[in-house]
Amino acid sequence: MAIDEYISLAAKVFVDRMTDLHHLCPACVVPVEAWLSAYRLGTQPVPEPDYSMSGSCLECAREWYKDTGLGDLGAAVQKARGERWKIEQELGG
User: Fold this and answer.
1) What's the CA angle centered on 18, arms 15 and 24, to 5 degrees?
2) Enclosing domain of residue 62
């Protein structure tokens, strides 16, 4: 919707139990905020929502990559991981 209407969406950042950052769009933040509310109250909530392994709103990012002509998000992630691995190898990590 944001792409079609040329508008920006405010992202919300959360940190999970592993201290990983996650950037979520307004639609995808709803279940996370509901879980956090129950967690703060000390109730026995359902398991913590899956923020996605990419650290961002995965389905929205996939759609954005496709709609803007950037290609496949999965391929971009694999390329970035490969580049990071190469750097680590060069630095002896």
Assistant:
1) 30
2) 3-91
Which stretches does DSSP call E strand in 1-93?
12-15, 21-24
Region 2-24: mean pLDDT is 71
Q: Which tokens hold the place of 89?
A: 């190898």
pTM over 0.85? The answer is: no
Residue 16 in tokens: 């999970």
Per-residue pLDDT band for 74 (boundaries 50, 70, 90) equals: confident
Which residue carries 């026995």 as its tokens?
A: 44
Task: Identify any residues that bridge with 12 across adjacent strands, giving them in sequence order.
Answer: 24
Q: Is 15 helix (H, G, I), strand (E, B) or coil?
A: strand
Total domains in the chain come to 1
